[in-house]
From TrEMBL, chain A:
Main location: membrane
Natural source organism: Ruegeria marina
Localisation per UniProt entry: Cell membrane
Stored Pfam families: BPD_transp_2
Protein name in the entry: Branched-chain amino acid transport system permease protein
UniProtKB/TrEMBL annotation, chain B:
Cellular location(s): Cell membrane
CDD domains named in the record: TM_PBP1_LivH_like
Protein name (database record): Branched-chain amino acid transport system permease protein
Organism field: Ruegeria marina
Transmembrane intervals: 12-31, 38-56, 62-80, 142-160, 189-211, 223-249, 269-286
Topology versus the membrane: Multi-pass membrane protein
The keyword Oxidoreductase belongs to this UniProt entry's keyword annotation: no
Pfam families in UniProt: BPD_transp_2
Keyword Calcium: no
Assigned GO CC terms: plasma membrane
Broad class of where this protein is predominantly found: membrane
Amino acid sequence: MDSYTISVLSNIGLFSFLAISAWILLIAGEISFGQQAYFALGAYGAGIATAVWQWPFALGLGFGIVLGAGIGALVAWPAMRLTGVHFAIATLAFAEFLRSGLNIFRYRREVGGYLTGPDGANGFRDIRWAYEAGVEPLGYLILIGGCLLSVIALVACLARGRGMALLRIVGEDPILAAMQGISVARVRIGAAALAGGVAGFGGGLYAHMATYVEPAQFGVMPGVHALAYGLIGGLGTVFGPILGVLVDIGALESLRVFSGYRMIVFGGLVALVLIVRPRGLLDEAALRRGLAWLRR
Amino acid sequence: MLLDLVQNTVDGLAVGAAYGLLALGFTLIFGVMRRLNIAFGPSIMIGIFAGAWLHAEWSVGMVPVFLAVLAGAVITAAYVERISFAAIRGDAALASMASSFAIWMQLEEAVARVFPGRTYGFPTFDGMPMIEIGPVLLRPEYLVMLVTAAALVAALQWGLAHTRFGLELRTLADRPEAARVSGVNVARVAFLTFLLAAAIGGIAGFLIAAADGQITPKIGLWATIKGLIAMVIGGLGSLRGALIGGLVLGVVEANAQWFLGAAGREMTTYALLFLALVLLPAGLAGRTEAGARAEAERRL
C-alpha cells in the first residue's frame, strides 16, 4: 500500500471512533454536537501520559479512555435532564469551553533535555511514541484497525446482552423505559461515559499518529461531521457510522475528478439519500431484511 | 471601571440585537417545523457574499447591496427548505438536520469556488457621526442595529397577532394537528415561514457585515452557532425570548472580552451557557410545557 492510501484509511479509522461515539448517544436519544471534546481529552490525556510522564503507550491510551469516559459522565450528570436542542447546545457549550480552555492550557516539562507538553494555542508537539518505538504507518494503521475492532466487539457484546436494548428503549421512549423500572438517568450517564470513552480512545490514537495536536483541530466542525456520519450511514447498527465515514472520506477522495466541486456533488448526494432513506443507509428495516435473508 | 462596564454593555446590546435577530430566525423555523435548520447561517452567508460581489463589481450603494443580501439569503433558504425539509417526511427530524448539514457543505464549497480568498470587503455606513451620550460612545452602525432589531420584533409581533398568515403560523406552532384539520395549508405556511426567517437572518447578516466592513466564509458557522445559542438562552419558541437571549449573549460577551480577554471571553460565555441550560432549561423567557398548558387553561 502506498503512503497515501494508508493515511486515508487511518483517517477513516480514527474518524470512525468519533462517529461511533456520536452514534451511541443518538441511540440513547440525545443529539451531541460536542463529542470532539472527548476526542480532544483523549488526545491530550494520552499524549501527556506518554510524552511528558513517559508512561507506556497502552497505559497512556487507557488514561485517554478513562479521561474521556469520566469527563463524559461528569458532564452528562447535570445535562441528562436536557433533551433535543437543549442537550445539543449544552454539549456544544462544553466542547467550546474545553477548546478555549486548551488554548490557555500550558503544561510543559523538561523531558530528555527538551521542553515537552501542551503549550496553549501553539499546540502540543512531539508526541513521539510511534516514532521512538519504530512503528511504521502501516503498522499503526493495523493498530487503529485492531482498536476499532475491539470497540465494535464491545458494542456487539452490548447488543447481545441487555445494554443496547436499554439504550434503545431509553432513546425511543424514556417514559415507557421509566415505567419498566429502568433508571433513565443512569442509562443516559452510562451512554455518555461509553461515548466519551470511545471518543477518548480515538483521540489517543490520533495524537500518536499525528504527533502534533492543537486546540483548533477540535472545533465544532468535526463534531457536527461525526453526528452526520451516523445519520447518513444509518442508526441500525454500529456499522452505520463507520459506513458514513467510509462514504464521506472514501467518496470524497474518489470524487477527486470533480476537484473543486467535490462537496457540491457529495452534499447533494447525501441530501438525496436522506430523502429516500431518512434513517440512513443501513437503517433498522435494512438490518431486519438482511438478517431475514441470512436466516433463509 | 464602571464606565467601561457601561460602554461594553452598550456595545454588547448592539451586537446582541443582531444575535437576537439570528435567534429569531431559528425560533420561527423551529417553532413551526420542530426541526433544526443548521444551514440557516450558511444561507445568510450566501446572501452576504452576493451583496459583497455586487458591491465589488459595480460599486453600487447600500440599498442594492442590502437587496442582494436579502435575495441571496431567501433564495438559498428556499433551496434548503425544498431539499432538506419539504422532501423529508415530517417525523424524521434528525434526517432534516443531517440533510441541512450536507447542504451547508455544498454552500460552503460553492462560496469557496467563487470567492477563493479568505476575506472580502463589505460596504460600510460611511459618513455617520459617532453618537455621544455623556461619556458613552455609540457607533452609528450599532444604533442602526438596535433600532432595526426593535422595529423588526415589533413588526413581527404585530404581524403574528393581526394577520391571517400570523394566525396560521401560530396555530401550526402551537397545535400542528389542529392546524391541519382546520384547513391550514401546512406546507405553504412552513415554506413562507422559512423564507421569512431567512429574510430576518439576511437583515441581521447585512447589519453585521456592514458593521465589520469585511466578511469571510466562516460567517456561516458563526451565524448558526450564535443564533442557536441565543435561541436556547432565551427559551425555545418565544420571539421575545429570542431577542432577550441575543441581548444577554451580546452583553456577556462584550464584558468578558474587555475584562478577561479573548480566551477568557470564550470560556466564560460557554461556561455560563452550560450553567444556564442546566439551571434554566426553559430559557429566560421560555415556559415549560406544563406552564404553557396551565396558562391556556386559565384563558379558557
